[in-house]
Amino acid sequence: MKLITAIIKPYRLDEVKTALQEMGVDGLTVTEASGYGRQRGHTEVYRGAEYRVDLVPKVRIDVVVEDADADAVIDAVVRAAQTGKIGDGKVWSVPVETVVRVRTGERGPDAL
Amino acid sequence: MTLAAAHIDTGDTAWLLAATALVLLMTPGLALFYGGMVRTKSVLNMLMMSFVSIALVTVVWLACGYSLAFGDDVADGLIGGLHQAGMAGLGPSDVHGTVPTLLFATFQLTFAIITAALISGAVADRAKFGAWLVFVPVWALLVYVPVAHWVWGPGGWIGQHLHALDFAGGLPVEITSGASGLALCLVLGPRLGFKKDAMRPHNLPMVMLGAGLLWFGWFGFNAGSAMGATGLAAAAFLNTLAAGCTGLLGWLFVEHKRDGHPTTLGAASGAVAGLVAITPSCGTVSLLGALVVGLAAGVVCSYAVGWKFKLNYDDSLDVVGVHLVGGIVGTLLIGLFAEKAMTGGAEGLLYGGGLAPLGRQLLAVAAVAVYAFAVTYGLGKLLDKVMGLRASEEQEHTGLDLTVHAETAYDHGVLGHGAPVGASSFVPTAQKVNTQA
What we know:
The complex is a heterodimer of chains A (112) and B (437). Chain A is α+β, with helices and mostly antiparallel strands. Helices cover 20% and strands 37% of the residues of chain A.
């Protein structure tokens, strides 16, 4: 199994969610996050004083899938989140040792 | 003193009753205006500094402030006597002009309240609350009361000897609060992280709401200062609206040219700057004068708020840049735009009055600014020595809301929900007392 983590622009969340649902991904976790990549932050002006805001609001999506589905899921997230402009975010995956469904105690891919 | 038997005019009294309530509303409005501009960790403290000013100034005003400001002069136009301390001898049938004296005293009280509250903007996020509770009443008696006597009191030297004009309080309200704010923020020193950390306004809609309430109340402030339901009140009312509008437009114009974006904070600040400047002049200048006064204040103040970064004084919410500078602009422009139809005699430079009126306005501005700055600086230093004027570094860093008031303004949870379950629990007071016993 793989844990796929995506950091995306908040306004692309609906598209990404829909794309994952259409692929049959049954569950995901969404977190409000903030950070920066190469685009750095933005500038705000209050009474003429400029403030450099380094951390930009982002949404983080975590989803665990079977190894065979991982590449397709990553591609789907990228397609749905992409605007082509700076600040679109990142997607990465890491191997997952085990998953347990708390309600039933099922383990491994059955728990997904 | 009028020779005819004093007589209460019901129309004048009705208007002044309403105007008094309007002016009082400005202080909660100011609390929101300021509160939105600070960070989340000290917003309640900001609101509290204004609210306690209402209570503190009212008590000292009734005890002796009113008598010292508006009682018969006892020192060559410098201060009134104590004959009416505790509002002694004043009842429902006493008359001041055409309104009950008790109403006149209450109307004037609301001015003293907001002037003290205005200073809090210069010391946001770091003043020791206990020291503020002492500062406000003492400051009201040492600074506001004498200046009000000079300008409006019977025999006051600025109003009745120098004959400088100030219709609704450019000198006692705007310039004293601005000069005092400067003095107090110098005594206190800058906030931790001044010029380093981003100290963004945490709630701009709150700032806009506060500005709206201030503007609404300002009609009572300025048009009420006509002391009656008269044509002059109507003219002052219209001038107040006009100057607020051109102040707003002037500030936005500068922002558009200088920063590239017209901001909500700029709109709110520009309107307030225009209103500040028209305060002394609303009952003395023509409508054209009012439009110019507002525009000048909007433009000048939008630059003046940047001085603190160059000169290194942390006037956190720009009491100096908006109230001192705007007050000076408005008070001086009377010397140019005073019109006979409004003043009943005096005329400004542009209406053939020569340079003398401008000189009188300048002298009054300088005297009041220097007096307010000097006395406040001395009072601030004294309080700092006796009880400490500044919150501890830890309190300031954590936020005054939690450390001073044991409250937080907002329940910050994940995705808009409340705090996570188990993050806090309810401890009934009784139980707390028992466990301590």
